[in-house]
Specification:
About 35% of the residues lie in helices and about 30% in strands. It has 7 helices and 10 strands. The site of magnesium ion has 5 residues, from helix 1.
Length: about 240
């Protein structure tokens, strides 16, 4: 049993591009403690989304071991990984990934339905979450009737409604203006703190990184800095 909530041991991941193989992550090792809020910085294409996909079990390692909440993801079948992700992980994607044919409230209810919560709890939790992200009264709006910032709020609510122990957010402020982006992170970070959730957040914004407990900086799939400080002297 490890004290760490997330453990990566010598993780490598490559993708095939035609006949050549491109290594995205090489021999990466790192630990994250329970309740830590970690920002991940790095240039486009350096492997940030790949890292989140591996930690969430959406994708699988070529070699090495990833454990989350004392579960070794690398020994699970695809079905077991899906179940693990559904129960323990909330994911806010780069492109929101809301289901366009479902209303805001129905999108938020999805993780509760997949985890087979009782109907009354689904209703109550989803409504309460909608209010917490400031979308009271927008229950029946479809994603295309909401602004980018509002869609973002739905995505945050959907990722957190089942109180997952781990929340992963991938550069989700990218398509928003800077102020809205910062507001979203504040909201997200507050919600996570109130439930002692562990958070990994991919961002290009130093301002956002500075609000995290810890900043990991990547260059070409390698961890080049791990600052366990308030990141006041961050230079990129
Ligand atoms: N499914 C895939 N198949 C092939 N190559 C992939 C796949 N996913 C990612 N890659 C490649 O792996 C590298 C890292 O991609 P990744 O999406 O992790 O980067 P990123 O750091 O998230 O970039 P960005 O900041 O632009 O989102 C890129 O060169 C990308 O083209
Ligand atoms: Mg990415």
């Amino acid at each position: 049993m490890s004290d760490h909530f997330i453990t990566l041991e010598q993780v490598s991941k490559s993708y095939n591009a035609g006949s050549t193989s491109h290594q995205v992550l090489g021999d990466l090792s790192l630990n994250v403690a329970k309740g830590e809020q970690v920002a991940i910085l790095g240039h486009s294409g350096c492997g940030k989304s790949t890292l989140l996909n591996l930690i969430s079990g959406i994708d699988y390692v070529d070699s090495g071991v990833i454990s989350v909440a004392n579960t070794n993801l690398t020994t699970l079948s695809e079905k077991e990984r899906t179940l693990f992700r559904r129960q323990h992980i909330g994911f806010i994607f780069q492109s929101f990934n809301l289901i366009q044919t479902l209303t805001a409230l129905e999108n938020i209810q999805l993780p509760l339905q997949l985890n087979r919560y009782p109907a009354t709890e689904i209703e109550a939790r989803a409504k309460s979450m909608l209010t917490r992200v400031g979308l009271n009264g927008r229950d029946n709006a479809f994603p295309d009737q909401l602004s980018g910032g509002e869609q973002q709020r739905v995505a945050i609510a959907r990722a957190m409604v089942h109180s997952p122990a781990l929340v992963l957010a991938d550069e989700h402020t990218g398509n928003l203006d800077a102020d809205t982006g910062r507001e979203m992170i504040e909201l997200f970070s507050e919600l996570a703190k109130s439930e002692s959730q562990t958070v990994l957040i991919v961002t290009h914004s130093l301002a956002i990184a500075k609000t995290a407990d810890r900043v990991l900086r990547f260059l070409d799939g390698k961890l080049i800095a791990d600052d366990n400080l308030d990141a006041t002297d961050l230079a990129w």
